[in-house]
Design a protein that fits this description.
Layout lengths: L4 H11 L3 H10 L4 H10 L15 E9 L2 E9 L2 H4 L2 H16 L5 H6 L1 E2 L2 E2 H12 L4 E9 L2 E6 L5 E8 L5 H18 L11 H25 L17 H17 L7 H15 L2 H6 L5 E2 L2 E5 H12 L4 E9 L8 H12 L1
Antiparallel strand pairs: 1-2, 2-5, 3-4, 6-7, 7-10, 8-9
Helix pairs in contact: 1-2, 1-3, 2-3, 10-11
Length: about 350
């Protein structure tokens, strides 16, 4: 397959890798763009450029929480100018309320639902005519549990919903904690709640890329005379079986013995050393999972540790059961000059 300059350019834009590295990657994988991205990551050459930085989609996200139910919605417009228009803002609020009130689950169900005596799709077309741009209700989700909290960032581009079982804790105080966790998630962008949502194959593939990334960084750090990254043996709790942890504990004890530390004080040192081992070997969880990330309001503790601590304080057990984060334009990879066509295609 011929590797065109356009293909090389697109791969470079999506990965941040060098031009020649991108060309070589495409040649190696026969022009398959997805495989080329994997190739660059495995070689530690991808700069992991955030696709969201290159997106052209505009619009707003919205959150509505009523009691123990929360709804999150993204509606796209063609320009940011329209996204700031009062009519558009009102459309977003009206649509969010309509979706929650009527328990709507899919965009098809939304299109045929009735709003103010008319089909929603006709209502939307009327708003499009008035506002003067194509608009799309791109996605939405509703979650429920004992406690639900939501957060919309001040720019209206990022929104988060989190639900939890209070487990006998004061619901009001759990709600306050969840609101703070929503703000954390808005900034730190976790993909899922827990490492338990990762497959073994996914973790193993990501570990190869993570190791290559750190080794590549170390080349530059060494050149600059700066401390090097620790290269972990593992990437996630998925890989840390009881046997792995038992071996790590035995290795720590052997290390303490060699250092001449009295055995009677090992139990005071061991927990901290094990925590360090877990932190060093769960970098994937720290990047991608809500519970595995270090809390922005107390960066010495993971979210999981914060939940355990608050549960003890409140005399119960708080369990996160739902998490949704929307960022305007996430996953839409059209350039600005193509976005109108993208929206029009979705409207059909």
């Amino acid at each position: 397959m011929e590797i065109t300059a356009q293909m090389v350019k697109e791969l470079r834009e999506s990965t941040g890798a060098g031009m020649m590295d991108c060309k070589k990657a495409l040649v190696e994988v026969g022009g398959d763009m997805n495989k080329a991205v994997d190739y660059l990551r495995e070689k530690g050459l991808s700069k992991a450029a955030k696709k969201a930085d290159r997106l052209a989609a505009e619009g707003l996200v919205s959150v509505l929480v009523n009691g123990n139910t929360g709804t999150i919605v993204e509606i796209n417009s063609e320009t940011d100018f329209v996204a700031k228009n009062d009519k558009f803002i009102n459309l977003v609020a009206t649509t969010t309320e309509h979706i929650q009130k009527n328990g709507i689950k899919t965009t098809d169900e939304l299109a045929t639902s009735s709003l103010n005596g008319a089909k929603f799709e006709d209502y939307l077309k009327g708003e499009i005519a008035v506002i003067g741009e194509n608009l799309v209700v791109r996605r939405f989700e509703t979650i429920s549990d004992e406690v639900v909290a939501g957060y919309v960032h001040s720019n209206g581009k990022v929104a988060v919903l989190i639900s939890a079982k209070a487990g006998g804790c004061d619901a009001g105080k759990v709600g306050e904690l969840l609101k703070n966790l929503c703000m954390h998630a808005a900034a730190m962008k976790p993909s899922v709640i827990s490492y338990k949502e990762f497959s073994k194959d996914f973790v193993e593939k990501e570990y190869v890329a993570l190791k290559a990334e750190l080794e590549k960084d170390n080349e530059e750090l060494k050149r600059l005379g700066k401390p090097l990254h620790h290269i972990p043996e593992y990437a996630s709790r998925v890989q840390l079986t009881d046997d792995v942890i038992a071996k790590a504990e035995a290795a720590i004890k052997e290390e303490l013995k060699k250092e001449g530390k009295p055995e009677k004080i090992w139990d005071k040192i061991l927990p901290g050393k094990l925590d360090r081992f877990l932190a060093d070997n769960t970098l994937l969880d720290q990047r991608l999972t809500l519970l595995g990330q270090f809390y922005v309001m107390d960066d010495k503790k993971t979210i999981a540790q914060v939940l355990e601590e608050r549960s003890r304080e409140l005399g119960g057990k708080i369990e996160i059961t739902g998490y949704v984060r929307f960022e305007v334009g996430e996953g839409l990879e059209k350039r600005a000059d193509d976005f109108a066509a993208e929206v029009a295609a979705q409207i059909g």
